[in-house]
Every structure is written in structure tokens, then in C-alpha cells.
Amino acid sequence: MNLNNPFASMRARDWAFWLGSLAVVAVSNFLGGDVDPLTLIAALTGVTALMLAAKGQVFAQYLMIVFCLLYGAISCRFRYWGEMLTYLGMSLPMAVWSAVTWRRNTAHEAGSAVAIRRLTGRDLALLVLATAAVTALFGWLLAALDTPNLGFSILSVATSFLAAALTMLRSSYYGLGYAANDIVLVVLWVLASCEDPAYIPVAVNFGIFLFHDFYGFLSWKKRERHMAQTA
Fold first, then answer.
1. Where in the cell is it found (predicted)?
2. Does 1 map to a domain?
3. I need a surface site. Which of 71, 109, 155, 189 has the fewest CB within 10 A?
């Protein structure tokens, strides 16, 4: 598998979408006044990770590991313990696991892109049970930590775990899982921005992530149809 150039599979429209997203993220951060380097770097890393994930590139998961660390630090500063615990204690190890599974399962006809896997009924049942168990555990912890906006924080845990699990399982529906999580996160950071406008760029960043996750879903569905036809 070739990991030397993860951008090799990107076409002109991919480059335009990616670079345009980076520009919007950068402008939104600078327009906010005092630029927070941590927020800006996290956003640029996240956008790049999602762009490469849409192309099925394993390198996306390495960038996601970095993003989890940065976002965990940002969440800690606002006392969004749910986000911090979710990304450092759940999304981070699952991103590592996803990197391993993606690297071991590439599609020969798609170069270095990961092979897409169809979920079975057993997979879906385990997903539901695992999501319920993780949500209940983290919900209890968040309540004990007096987390701000508790309801949305618990919903973020559920959608984040589901999205990370679908990514690890190499399902084309991973994009929809993250899109649902993005919507919750936009709400969370808009609420945070009401107390401190410095967090407005974070809300904007997740709005950009939302478009990328929908793009990832459509891209994987297209590859899934192509793989079915050539099987």
C-alpha cells in the first residue's frame, strides 16, 4: 500500500473543495479577533482529515488522532468534559484502531483506498447495544462532573461513538454518523459562544465539517456502487 502521497487520488473538484474549506476556516478564525492558534490548527487538521477520509485514505486516520488530541484540549478549557472525555477516551483510541483496520483492508482496484464493508444484521445489533452502553456510562460521568449543556453533551457522546464505530467498520454510513455529530457540536459551541464569543470559530469549523461529512458519505456510496459492479 502506498502512503507516500495521500492526495494523489484527489481530483480538481476535491482540491477546490478542500482549499476553499481551509480558506473559510482561516477567515472565520481571523475575523473573530484574537486568533486562537490551537483552534485554528485543530480546524485545519480536521478539515484535511475529513477530505482524505472521503477518499478512503488511511492517512486520514493519522490526522484524526492529532485532531482528537487538539480538540480534547480545546474542550477542556471550556469545561466541556463530555467532549474532552469522548475524544480523548473514546474517539482517540478508535481512530488508532481505525488506522489499523483501514491499513489492513485496502481495495486493490482503488489503489490505496480502504475497502468498503457492508454491515450485517449482527453488526447493527452490536452497534445499537454498544452505543447504548457507552452513552449510559459517559452520561453518568458527565452528570457527576456537572457538565454544561448536559443533554447535548450526552447526545454528542452517542453520535460520536456511532460515527467512530462505523468508521472502524469501514461502513459508507460513517459520514452520516459524523454529520449527526457535527450538528450536535454546532449547537454545543453556539451555546458556548453565547458565554464567550471567542468560541464562534469553533462552531463555524464544525459547520464546515458537516459539509465534508456529507461529501464523504456520497463519495463512499459512489465507490461502493463501483466496487459492487466490478466484483
1. Cell membrane
2. no
3. 109
Give the gyration radius of the chain's Cα atoms. 17
What CA–CA distance (Å, rounded) separates 48 from 20?
11
Among 86-90, 162-166, 180-184, name the one with the lowest average pLDDT: 86-90
94 contacts 128 by C-beta, under 8 angstroms: no
The DSSP result for 65-80, as a single string, is HHHHHHHHHHHHHHT-
Residue 73 has pLDDT above 50, yes or no: yes
Does residue 50 sit within a domain?
yes
If one counts the domains in the chain, the total is 1
Of residues 100, 41, 102, 35, the one with CA closest to residue 66: 41
Do 219 and 13 contact (CB within 8 A), yes or no?
no
> Is 181 inside a domain boundary?
yes
Residues 21, 77, 152: CA angle, nearest 5 degrees: 70
pTM, whole model, 2 decimals?
0.86
User: For 141, how many CA atoms within 13 A lie in the half-sphere containing its CB?
Assistant: 16
Residue 138 φ then ψ, to 5°: -70, -35
Range(s) of the domain holding residue 220: 12-112+119-230
Per-residue pLDDT for 21 more than 90?
yes
CB contact at 8 A, 170 and 119 = no
